[in-house]
């Protein structure tokens, strides 16, 4: 094993020991581990291959990139390939460390200093079981961005997703256009997918981003695939191929059992490039735009409680994500004129920034009890043998990415062209809320303690598995707005979840599909039984009816943190578009957005892989613009 990886493993084991030793109450493990995470984040030295934090910055660079997440890391890497260009990368958070490496324990990172820890505004009919009836929206505040706190699943969507973008007038964004950029970033590990005859056409080898099928499997992993075959689905499949319907083990952005974030992939290998300057723990508060020429010429930021400015000779590139990029644009006078005037921000360009917010909504409360010890129960992995297995071999249950072992892409009765365009994803977890003995999982959702205890508390520690239905193509839309003109006030997030009744109907069908999986002979060999404690607030509906599940969706409204669309890409004829197909902000010269916010329609894939692609394509467009 690589010595650096071994050191990370060893440090992570120390954290895991602290976690597992917290036996007296199920909530103490969560508190202890978060304390360990914060200790390592603020006290421990940075990893030896960390990106150095510049002690001094120049007044001017060719490019100023805001945000070191999946978009910003790629852009900074690719632009510094041009030796004559200088790039300043600004990140609000600090360096990731060994505590973020352990795939299974990702839910313990939420609410720590690696997370902006956002909450939505209240909305009738959703998140009723959550604290203050607000949905929790974690966002990465760290080198690597949300790729440091996500569930590491590598899915791209289907070709039709990108062909739809192109049909909307986004020239250059069809599937044939974007496939080379997916392949460019990827380094697919050896295994079943790599051995497929299609692999050379649709996957990349030798890119910066490690993509692997985790080697460790629970006994229920093969059972899930057998259930898929029993239901008539192809299995196993390569769901990143042209025909994704079917069941398969997950592909994940991991390497030797550890998380492989955007920073590890794209920044640490180039950390010594002389034309790359990185400053961390620095919050950008405004893009500087000349009101006369309408040209972006730099940014204002706060670092060590001091306000400074830095200037861009060529471009300012916002890569702050679907929640913070629209905030920055609006704070800089680029956004809906009526809203900015109300907040007290002078208007530079009247654009529909913050609209078109989309996300993959889900209902993560399904629990299926089994009669054998074949699932992930957190307290079971206190045993030192699993910690040793992870430390020495990079293997074992701690390597399961966020507890997600396998996935199915399916079509409900509402799907259009369902033979090639699934509208539902079912994520299989060999553990469930009953195995959440440390308390981190239901806190990740923001679930109220009384709700958890009422439904799941009586079964804590019981073997069970979960299947999460995910709405892949929502019709509902939300919005991001400024809370005030103060850049340190979190924006207002209006999720808009399930505001279109079609979305509710599709998600109910997804729940019924998940239950059908549990009733297959494959799972009945383990006595699989749906936990049937009625959700508080839904007791008035017959348990298991469509009306009951519709009510449950409104109580336990979960999501995959795949917010997109708030700086919509579109042609000049699209009055809702914020950026053009070259990702240039309309009405402002020298300013681009390169992150998930530019997606006009959310694809049916996990957005991290897609954002890497956007970064790769944007970098080429920027080079084409300036080199010639």
From TrEMBL:
FAD binds at residues 142, 146, 284. The keyword Cytoplasm does not apply. Its cofactor is FAD. The active site is at residues 562, 606. It comes from the Eukaryota. Residues 1-27 form the signal peptide. Keywords: FAD, Flavoprotein, Signal. GO terms for molecular function: flavin adenine dinucleotide binding; oxidoreductase activity, acting on CH-OH group of donors. Residues 321-335 form the Glucose-methanol-choline oxidoreductase N-terminal domain. The keyword Flavoprotein applies. SUPFAM superfamilies: FAD-linked reductases, C-terminal domain, FAD/NAD(P)-binding domain. Pfam families: GMC_oxred_C, GMC_oxred_N. Belongs to the GMC oxidoreductase family. This is Glucose dehydrogenase acceptor. It comes from Melanaphis sacchari. The lineage of its organism: Eukaryota, Metazoa, Ecdysozoa, Arthropoda, Hexapoda.
């Amino acid at each position: 094993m690589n010595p650096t990886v071994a050191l990370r493993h060893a440090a992570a084991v120390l954290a895991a020991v602290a976690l597992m030793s917290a036996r007296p109450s199920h909530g103490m493990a969560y508190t202890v581990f978060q304390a360990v995470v914060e200790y390592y984040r603020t006290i421990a030295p940075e990893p030896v291959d960390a990106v150095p934090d510049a002690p001094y910055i120049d007044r001017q660079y060719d490019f100023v990139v805001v945000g070191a997440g999946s978009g910003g890391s790629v852009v900074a890497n690719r632009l510094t390939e041009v030796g004559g260009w200088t790039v300043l990368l600004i990140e609000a958070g600090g360096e990731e460390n060994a505590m973020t490496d352990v795939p299974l324990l990702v839910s313990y990172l939420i609410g720590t200093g690696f997370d902006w820890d956002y909450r939505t505004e209240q909305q009738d009919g959703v998140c009723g079981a959550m604290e203050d009836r607000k949905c929790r929206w974690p966002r990465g505040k760290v080198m690597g961005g949300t790729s440091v706190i996500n569930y590491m699943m590598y899915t791209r969507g289907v070709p039709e997703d990108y062909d739809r973008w192109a049909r909307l007038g986004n020239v250059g964004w069809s599937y044939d256009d974007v496939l080379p950029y997916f392949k460019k970033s990827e380094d697919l590990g050896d295994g079943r997918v790599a051995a497929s005859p299609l692999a050379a056409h649709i996957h990349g080898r030798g890119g910066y981003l490690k993509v692997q099928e985790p080697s460790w499997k629970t006994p229920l992993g093969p059972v899930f695939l057998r259930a898929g075959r029993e239901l008539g689905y192809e299995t196993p499949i390569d769901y990143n191929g042209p025909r994704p319907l079917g069941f398969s083990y997950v592909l994940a952005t991991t390497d030797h059992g550890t998380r492989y974030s955007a920073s590890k992939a794209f920044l640490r290998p180039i950390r010594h490039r002389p034309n790359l300057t990185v400053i961390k723990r620095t919050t950008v508060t405004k893009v500087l735009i000349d009101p006369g020429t309408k040209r972006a010429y730099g940014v204002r930021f706060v670092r060590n409680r001091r306000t400074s400015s830095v200037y861009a000779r060529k471009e300012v590139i916002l890569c702050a994500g679907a929640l913070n990029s629209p905030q920055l644009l609006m704070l800089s006078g680029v956004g809906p004129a009526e809203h900015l005037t109300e907040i007290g921000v002078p208007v530079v360009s009247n654009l529909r920034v913050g609209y078109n917010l989309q996300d993959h909504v889900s209902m993560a409360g399904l629990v299926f009890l089994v009669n054998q010890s074949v699932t992930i129960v957190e307290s079971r992995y206190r045993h030192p043998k699993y910690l040793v297995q992870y430390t020495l071999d990079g293997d074992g249950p701690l390597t399961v990415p966020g507890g997600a072992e396998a996935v199915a892409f399916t079509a409900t009765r509402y799907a259009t062209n369902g033979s090639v365009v699934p509208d539902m994803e079912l994520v299989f977890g060999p553990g469930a809320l009953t195995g959440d003995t440390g308390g981190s999982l239901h806190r990740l959702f923001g679930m109220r303690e009384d709700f958890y205890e009422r439904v799941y508390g009586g079964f804590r520690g019981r073997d069970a598995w979960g299947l999460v239905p995910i709405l892949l193509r929502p019709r509902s839309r939300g919005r991001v707005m400024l809370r005030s003109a103060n850049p340190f006030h979190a924006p207002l997030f209006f999720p808009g979840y399930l505001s279109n009744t079609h979305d509710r109907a599709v998600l109910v069908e997804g729940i019924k599909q998940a239950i059908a999986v549990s009733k297959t002979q494959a799972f009945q060999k383990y006595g699989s039984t749906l936990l049937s404690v009625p959700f508080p607030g839904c007791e008035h509906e017959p348990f298991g009816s469509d009306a009951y599940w519709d009510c449950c969706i409104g109580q336990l409204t979960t999501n995959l943190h795949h917010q997109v669309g708030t700086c919509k890409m579109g042609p000049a004829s699209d009055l809702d578009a914020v950026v053009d197909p070259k990702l240039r902000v309309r009405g402002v010269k020298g300013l681009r957005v390169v992150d998930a916010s530019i997606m006009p329609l959310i694809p049916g894939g996990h957005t991290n892989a897609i954002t890497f692609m956007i970064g790769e394509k944007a970098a080429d467009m920027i080079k084409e613009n300036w080199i010639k």
